[in-house]
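Field log, afternoon session.

UNIT: design team B
ACTIVITY: writing a sequence onto a fixed backbone
BACKBONE:
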């Protein structure tokens, strides 16, 4: 039986992230999934949760130290987590499995755990403080999966075995013909010209809200729907703008219904990821709806999905792109849905499995 140990960068959750989407489809392998330790005062999840027939989830007993943390206490935290992982591997009779790392903070495990080969899945740009650890992961990995061409270029000095693996979507969730309007959205404007523009995902102080605020002030008849949690600092920035609606967290199963209620879907750039060309999973979900899409990006980033996704760099550009999108080519919705089908997580996972087989890891 194929065996894989995953060191995950985020907890196993109801709305799956990239790692969950991929590993859930590697059904011919037994997988131990180690999620990060919970917050200091947070509840301790049940250990050994069987979330899929082939996946068992454990929670690390201590938070992992960062690159600038080198005290004896912090080293003990690492050793404690590594010992826990090794014990669980022994419990499940894992003998030199494939190790799947999803964050530079996992680099110190390379010298501690027993494994037969390592995969580094790079889904985002990490800050320069992680450069040495990320270089170690890339050099030691038999295979590196990178979520964008920019990440391939960034990592290529350390490895020749890098495969492009963008994010994806579950297009089948968006193929239902009859859609129910969520009760929370029943009061939104529905008259011609009173457009609803939506963004899926949490909003924090690291998201540049200026383009959104510019458009909301210049088009008061439009409603801007923010579907996700909003931190206190971000909510303060949005105060006083009545046509920006904060919905809070959305049930993952209801996401397609919420997105279909919108006339246009958009995304915003983050302050902490300048130059990032990684297309978020939410944009692939937008594609699956066929709706017009406008994203605000870094001016140094080339269009990643030209024609199907309009890009802007600032508030005025965002507003212009939104106006133009409402008169777009009628063939674009079909083409977006076709692209979403090609970018399914099932196809991404099949690519992963084929590469692991070709390299001898599976």
């Amino acid at each position: 039986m194929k065996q894989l140990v995953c060191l995950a960068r985020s907890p196993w959750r109801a709305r799956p992230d990239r790692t969950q989407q991929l590993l859930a489809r590697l059904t011919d392998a037994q997988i131990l999934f180690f999620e990060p330790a919970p917050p200091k005062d947070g509840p301790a999840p049940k250990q050994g949760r069987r979330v899929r027939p082939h996946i068992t989830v454990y929670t690390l007993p201590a938070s992992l130290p960062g690159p600038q943390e080198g005290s004896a206490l912090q080293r003990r935290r690492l050793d404690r987590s590594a010992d826990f992982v090794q014990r669980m591997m022994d419990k499940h009779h894992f003998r030199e499995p494939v190790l799947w790392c999803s964050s530079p903070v996992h680099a110190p495990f390379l010298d501690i755990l027993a494994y037969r080969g390592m995969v580094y899945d790079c889904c985002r740009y990490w800050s320069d403080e992680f450069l040495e650890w990320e270089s170690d992961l890339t050099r030691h990995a038999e295979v590196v999966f990178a979520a964008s061409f920019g990440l391939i270029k960034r990592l290529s000095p350390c490895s020749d075995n890098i495969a492009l693996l963008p994010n994806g979507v579950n297009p089948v969730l968006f193929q239902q013909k009859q859609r129910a309007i969520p009760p929370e959205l029943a009061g939104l404007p529905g008259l011609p010209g009173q457009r609803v523009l939506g963004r899926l995902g949490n909003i924090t102080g690291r998201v540049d809200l200026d383009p959104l605020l510019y458009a909301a002030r210049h088009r008061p008849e439009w409603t801007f729907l923010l579907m996700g949690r909003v931190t206190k600092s971000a909510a303060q920035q949005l105060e006083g703008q009545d046509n920006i609606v904060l919905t809070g967290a959305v049930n993952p199963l209801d996401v397609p219904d919420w997105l279909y209620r919108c006339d246009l879907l958009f995304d915003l750039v983050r302050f902490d990821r300048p130059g990032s060309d990684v297309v978020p999973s939410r944009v692939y979900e937008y594609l699956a709806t066929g709706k017009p899409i406008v994203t605000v990006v870094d001016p140094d980033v080339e269009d990643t999905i030209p024609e199907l996704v309009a890009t802007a760099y600032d508030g005025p550009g965002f507003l212009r792109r939104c106006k133009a999108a409402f008169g777009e080519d009628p063939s674009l919705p079909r083409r977006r849905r076709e692209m979403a089908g090609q970018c399914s997580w099932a196809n991404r996972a099949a690519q992963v499995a084929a590469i692991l087989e070709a390299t001898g890891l599976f």
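LOG NOTE: The mean pLDDT is 91.
NEXT ACTIVITY: expression trials, pending approval
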